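[Structure tokenization] protein backbone as discrete codes

[Encoding] learned vocabulary of local backbone shapes

[Begin record] amino acids and matching fold tokens:

___
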Amino acid sequence: MFGLSAGVLVVFAIILAALALFVTEVVPVDVTALGILVTLLLVQPVTEQLTTWGLLAEPIYVLTQPGSDVSATSQGLSGFASTATITVLAMFILSAGVRRTGVIQILGSKIAAYTRDDETKQLGATIGLVSPISGFINNTAAVAILLPMVTDLAQKGKTSPSKLLMPLSFASMFGGTLTLIGTSTNILASEITGRLGRELGIASLDEFSMFEFTSLGIVVMLVGMAYLMTVGRWLTPARIKPAEDLTEEFEMADYLTEVVVREDSPIVGQTVQTALQDTDFDVDLVQLIRDEAVFLEPLGPKVIQPGDVFAVRTDRDTLVELMDVDGLDLLPEVEVTEEELEAAENEAQNLVEVVVAPGSTLVGETLASMNFRQRYDATVLAFRRGGEIIHERMEDTRLRVGDTLLIQGTADSIDRLNNNRNFIVAQEVQRPDYRQSKIPVAVGLVAAVVGLAALTPIDIATAALGGALGMILTGCLKPTEIYDSVQWDVIILLAGVIPLGIALEVTGGAALIADGIVALAPSLPPILVLGLMYVVTAVLTNVISNNASVVLMIPVAVEAATQLGANPFAFVLAVTFAASTAFMTPVGYQTNLFVYGPGGYRFTDYVRVGAPLQALLAVVTTIGIAVIWGLQPPA
């Protein structure tokens, strides 16, 4: 059809379907990746059977050439055995080992003491800390670790967290370009490049070394930092105003109040759980005050007595109906503040913002379907989704990645949430179990991994696995903690999309796309085609997964460079850097989603701040590659 082989048409159809699913997120991206993998594996055996029945002229091959010694199944499942997948898995474990020592929190407290209420210092310290750290532990993990510190930094310094959190995400991406292990994108790009070099016989294409592109990464980081401190600072909006406490930040004044149970109340003698089950009102009983004692969750078993005072979350109209039906009186001139809500446990922190993390198993669930209150002994007082705050009918709101929940619970409940990989607690929580004595060991293990991969013949996958094992053997991590430390959605995503790149190359699809790109720019010099490759990858990455865009674009970049007679390694680097720096949408990169809710951002804020930065780095990266590596193929 249209001069295209059946294999190419099938692969293009799979890519279009995958792009649609990645953009709309009808299902999670890792499920989409798994669907890609299963579809690719089924093409050959299904078409072989259809050929046997006489319904097709010949089988369709997408993962191997006909007669190849390598089976389609082994090619399809190669993503699970890929050095990129294994390395990323090991890096998650290494990052968790560093996090458990509390070393980042110690650095954060020292920075807070230095910056105080100076926004310029706060911004400089935020991007100055996260960028270099992101070069040596996964940048997604770096943002997850530093987000609570930066949020506290903003609150203590009376600065809008919006002014710091987007720069935190962007700066982590700069840092990810410093080394091979800075981001999963780099590791995946390295593996694909080495495979293509071997298959196509291109000697200049090999796996990246640890500091292969550090020189360019430093340039990108410095230019990016300068932008964030100047133009970016001016463009970044203060969506969340500096607030004295979280109830003010979440605009809870009209939704929190206190009521007292009358002697003749029909709910006297009932348990709290029964009283709530029997009502259709949108209301939460947040805390109970009885004889000067304050009680938090679990409130369900408490038997309601006359004179009990409840702090309740509801709207004004519902409150009026509730008071009439349940025999409650409003306590006059009472303002329920953060201080009031934290009076239960001798000033222990029990009111926090919690972000739904990427890869959370709770995405798509509602508070009701997951039985949140009973499961976590905590109450959700409000949602923030981007710039929108939701106060009513929250039980039926389906959770999305990046949603920020205002939660009240006991100190134990908050600690459990802090240990739960489904959430990121956006304030610093005092943890007694930081293994500070292991700081030198954990930092030493990361340094050893970097050193071994950079200075010895040991490959990065082996070094990273050795480092992960070292984290367990030295007690930086407990054996049971390693499974929770891995973002399994990323692992499944990598394993699922890697075969798509293989299919694109095997069927000739990559060559066809490259033909189109080269045909569009026949009179353009190679440096402009290189820049075009960066822009196309950047735009693609801003709407789908960064790892998926690398899988799709690196084979195309190599083919385009070959047809132009240019340096294929230069084109590979353009794709790699573009996929590692997606600034224009909250869905383009995981770290952007991390800060979307806590920063109160709108979708357009990423375009406003990120588009000029993306354009600036397109120029800087393209020129940097041309100057450092050259555009002519090596002799």
